[in-house]
Design brief:
Elements (H helix, E strand, L loop, with lengths): L1 E5 L6 E2 L3 H14 L15 H11 L6 H22 L2 E2 L3 H9 L4 E6 L4 H10 L9 E2 L7 H16 L7 E5 L2 H9 L3 E5 L6 H6 L4 E3 L5 H9 L1
Parallel strand pairs: 1-4, 1-6, 4-5, 6-7, 7-8
Antiparallel strand pairs: 2-3
Helix pairs in contact: 1-3, 3-5, 4-9, 6-7
The structure holds magnesium ion.
């Protein structure tokens, strides 16, 4: 059994400014911040890292109580913000996932920097949740490589799956590539996020596609 680990934002879907808007609203309504500062780099980060930095930037102590209050309010607001901001499923995604779902020897999971709950909310919003067995989220790790290592340990413990049996990370950022290579997986990168082909190749991706719309080629590469 081969395991495919898909990133969400910039890989399966784009959600416009949903995250920024929801977090700004939470800072205002739950923490009384008048002019929220969101001057942070988003791409490829875990939400554990990102949200703690956002708290700090807005003069809120990033302790456990504040992190939990922040993430709870964010979860509560996200479905509505997803509806307001629009967004879309990226080209080729539904056809690719549908074809992979018919392969008995392929398991599709999500490995994302999103919190596990907000990842589920995003997949639910776009009707993609049923394609995935597990969602591994960025709830606990500052470094995405640690998320990948926990994911690999879970797959070994729960399914007896070793990375050498065939694990592929599919993502849109150098961080996806780095964490995939770190656990010995192959990486397919797509240019549908904030990074171009040159930067994804430089980060060491084994294959780079503009998007997932060449479903035949991508499917063959992922399943061979
Ligand atoms: Mg991404």
């Amino acid at each position: 059994m081969k395991t495919l680990l898909f990133d969400i934002d910039g890989t399966l879907i784009v959600t416009n400014d949903t995250g920024t808007q929801a977090l700004e609203t939470v800072l205002q309504s739950s923490f009384g911040v008048k002019r929220p500062c969101m001057d942070v780099a988003f791409g490829g980060r875990t939400d554990f890292s990102l949200l703690n930095e956002v708290l700090l930037l807005n003069d809120i102590t990033p302790n456990e109580a504040n992190f939990l209050a922040f993430t709870k309010a964010y979860r509560n607001l996200l479905p509505q913000t997803l509806s307001e901001c629009g967004g879309e499923i990226l080209p080729g995604v539904v056809e690719l996932l549908s074809r992979l779902a018919k392969c008995a020897e392929i398991r599709c999971d999500v490995m994302t920097g999103n919190l596990r709950d907000t990842a589920t909310q995003k997949l639910d919003h776009f009707g993609l949740t049923h394609y995935f067995d597990n969602i591994f989220g960025g709830d606990f790790d500052v470094d995405r490589r640690h998320l990948a290592r926990r994911t690999a340990l879970f797959l070994r413990g729960s399914h007896g799956h070793e990375v050498k049996d065939g694990t592929i990370v599919i993502g849109d950022t150098p961080a996806d590539i780095t964490c995939g290579l770190d656990i010995g997986a192959s990486v397919l990168a797509v240019c549908t996020g904030q990074f171009n082909r040159d930067s994804l190749e430089a980060a060491g991706a084994n294959a780079v596609h503009e998007d997932l719309s060449d479903v035949d080629t991508v499917f063959r590469w992922l399943t061979e």
